Here is the input.
Amino acid sequence: MKNFRILLATSAAAIALAGTPALAERGTDGDLKILFWQAVSTMNPYLSGGTKEVYAASMVIEPLARYDETGALVAMLAADIPTVENGGVAEDLKSITWKLKPDLKWSDGTPVTADDAIFTWKYCTAPDGGCAQGAYFEGVTNVEAVDPSTIKVSFAEPKPYPYSAFVGAQSPIIQAAQFKDCMGAKAPECTSANFGPIGTGPFVVKEFKPNDVISFEANPNYRDPAKPAFATATLKGGGDAASAARAVLETGEFDYAWNMQVEPEILATMVAAGKGELVTAFGTQVERIDLNHFAVDASLGDKRSTKEAGPHPALTDPAVAKALSLAIDREVIDEVGYGEAGQPTCNILPAPDIYKSTNVDWCLKTDVDAANKLLDDAGWVMGSDGVREKDGYKLSFLYQTSTNSVRQATQALVKDMWAQIGVQVELRNIAANVFFGGDPASPDTFQKFYADVQMYTNNFDGTDPEKYMAGWMCDKIPSPANGWQGENIVRYCNPEYDKLVAELGKTAKLEDRAAIAIKLNDMLTDEFAQIPLIHRGSVSSHSVTLDGVKMNAWDSELWNVADWSRKK
Here is the structure.
């Protein structure tokens, strides 16, 4: 208990929002133009694990608390951050009690109450609901209203780090009245609510055109009457990363563009135009290659990429998986695609430093000879066509990712690297708005994973990895039964891993939590849940006329959009 109190006391000491620039009067700065080259498909982050949806929604719907640009926990809808010391966290660590700020209103003018939090929990945990953020409610046994403005979250076991449910951009509170008929399997059918959620944030949705553009206007009931400075905001989607960068850095058509996954030398040329600047922050983002643990042959029909299809005939062979990793030259990938905004890694959990493992650094040394020997010893015989085969199955994989010049360059490099060990690759790229869209009817989403391997990046809110590592638990695998939602995209399942996640949830001392998190990370790498490639910095761009931007790798990049203004 003592160690936990030290941890919470340290966290509480860091809970303070940095000063913000002086704002213009509310609504006097015109239209804020934001560009996401990956277009947004829904404004409900519970129905999509895609970063673009989470970030867009963060302008409208909010959690009780979120993380600032330093990774410190800051109150949003909550009046303060509960701790053991202030009585908000129970002595037995089995509950946390949040107090709402006084007089909070939804954008429609109705009061925000504890019942909305209760509903949000029930919404995400409803059977057949397919909640994309289920890990945030792992171990929660009840959410109740102590009174209309007080929310008590109870846990099955003592929870040394209780900041999970309703914390961070991925776990906001939604309005019970708006979503009351959208429970379970009905959730994706509630188009009006999913496209235009009633929120508490600085903006409200005026018009939503899926995979195209979102028009916002200032929330008339926002809790700070002086904010936001912008009367309206327009979030345009589509195009590619290079054109998005150009629209801010060279032409000045947009104020902010997210995710500048563009070759470093191209970005440098654009910045020289003087219209905008790059902002970078390193958090926990890792570009990785997922290895599908289930069979994906099209002949399997509706069973493909599900447990019913059976194990993948090659990618569940540790020799194949390790050979694929050893054959990759991560230094080349980093140099070509990321430069100073990336560094090779073998970790799925690369930060903060206390959680960073060095136990799996074997993957940093490219070793084609060792990879070939592994495959030889495992009985994968090289064919006359240069492709290895065993028991009638060829090492020929479909490798998919989202459409992006850096990712296509990485695909081409990896294809050549794998050819050196007798692995044939068919490359496929899918429009980002589709790949990350979460549409359960689409065959092309990264959740459905109708491919052998796929590549993208992922990260988590805040600095504590407990809820993130829970995403690889057996019950988080996407399937038809949960609308193809769930964080365990690779279909990895190890009961020992699940037990270790449960142990992490009961461990108080920070150093012990770190040791467990490192073990979990090492299991994911050594058991080839996926192949980590690059620890990426988050890179975005904004106009030199835009003030108040605080780049944040621990939460939504738009976390403080209420504080943005136009330089005078």
